[in-house]
Specification:
Largest interface: A-B, 11 and 12 residues
Oligomer: heterodimer
Largest sheet of chain B: none
Strand content of chain A: 15-25%
Structural class of chain A: alpha/beta
CATH class of the largest domain in chain A: Alpha Beta
Shape of chain B: globular
CATH superfamily of the largest domain in chain A: Thiolase/Chalcone synthase
Helix content of chain B: 40-55%
Distance between the termini of chain B: 12 Å
Number of helices of chain A: 14
Largest sheet of chain A: 10 strands, mixed
Distance between the termini of chain A: 19 Å
CATH superfamily of chain B: ACP-like
Strand order of the largest sheet of chain A: 5-4-6-8-1-9-15-14-10-11
Order of helices and strands of chain A: EHEEHHEHHHEHEHEEHEHEHEHHHEEEE
CATH topology of the largest domain in chain A: Peroxisomal Thiolase, Chain A, domain 1
Number of domains of chain B: 1
CATH class of chain B: Mainly Alpha
Radius of gyration of chain A: 20 Å
Helix content of chain A: 25-40%
Radius of gyration of chain B: 12 Å
CATH architecture of chain B: Orthogonal Bundle
Number of helices of chain B: 4
Number of domains of chain A: 2
Amino acid sequence: MKQTRIVITGIGLTAPNGNSLAEFRKNLLSGVSGITTIDVRYMGRHPAGMCTFDPLKYQKKKDVRIGTRVGGISIYCAREALADSGVDLATRDKSRVGIYLGVTEHGNVETENEVYNISQFKYDTKFWSHHHNPRTVANNAAGEVSLNLGITGPAYTIGAACAAGNMGLIHAAQMLRLGEVDFALAGGVSESPQTFGIFAGFKSQNALAAHEDPTKASRPFDQARNGIVISEGGCIYTIERLADAQARGAKIYGEIAGYHVNSDATDYVLPNPERQAECVRKAIANAGMTIEDIDLINTHATSTPQGDIQECVAIADVFKSRSSPPHINNTKGFIGHAMGAAGALELAGNLPSFDDLIIHPSINVDNLDPQCDIPGLVINQAKKAARVDVILNNSFGMLGINSTLIIKRFVA
Amino acid sequence: MTKEDCQKLVIDIISDIAPDEDLSAIKPEIRLRDQLQLDSMDFLDIVMELRKRHGIEVPEADYSHLASLESCAEYLTPKFPTKA
């Protein structure tokens, strides 16, 4: 059955090293990290990726006070994506607009804040805020966007651990194909550095990055890598059916060619390269492509000793029979692990390759781990490619969820 | 604590609850909701801040006393401890 073609027509993002696609891309090509150190409650200073967008660009001070950090990130990205798309919502049926945002987790920040707050009052729960429930419901990020933009269509989040960044886009494509909505704001968002629990959890797991220079702390594929740098961020796309986008003369960044989502069903935290490889293979099949068609792979690798190797094993296995390898890169060396936003942000960082044919590198690889030394890896220096027509974007998460999304150059 | 002092404390709280509002010309005798963009959640914030900052409890049955600055001062001033 021939599927309805779905295209990306707008991008809004905030990353630790850029508050627009142009700024983000420029920094990816020139090797600029966005990682700093922050004070983490109870834990002292740790490397983290924080965003510097102006929350008051699209929100009143009161809305910032009442809402959540991830709500503010989502509103900023959604508004920027809309502006980029050229769509004026005032001319649209807002009940036919969907908002689908991937999140790794939600509610930790506000719960920790409230527990800390009542600790200042001898744990008397009468000091617990009435804002806690609307701030911690799982749909908070999407709901804040719907409130801000007056969108009355479906607005919800998709919880998929660190595979979530791809999931918003995949789900939007599905809803557009089903005819449930006519226009979608979709992507992934994260506020995770605001919660000490994520830092403490990774530290107890021996998976929290440490380095005297924060810009070197996230170092996927490097032999000395020692864990994850936790980051906030967001990336929201406007997604449309091709016919609708063409009818309004939209700028088209790329076309959703295929995807796959599966589960390891083997471990709470340890990845499973067999299932990752299966996810990549099935996404390629879903796109009606072969391994020869893939030009650029964004790896999920998070800078953990074991996880990076597992993904390299999976990719090497899928592409082992290719005559020349696809280009392979990683974004986390620049921005850390933006959790629910990771997949969506990392895809955005690579989309301009369709136009400039430049592959941004994975940075901070001083000594390439031999177990990560797979053909096609672009490290430390950007590289000119002969062809970039297809980008494959991996995002994997805890509880064994894997997602692969394939975007191709738009050809009418 | 005078009623004027009490009004100032309430304005301090409102300036945090509704940071976009201009409070310089607020009329004490007019209902706050008629002058400012305040909703029921904001009034719960005012009640919470009175509890946190000043140890004052406002039972739900008494929320109507928070309608204007004047009625706030009338109701709240006796609840502040008197100086020795």
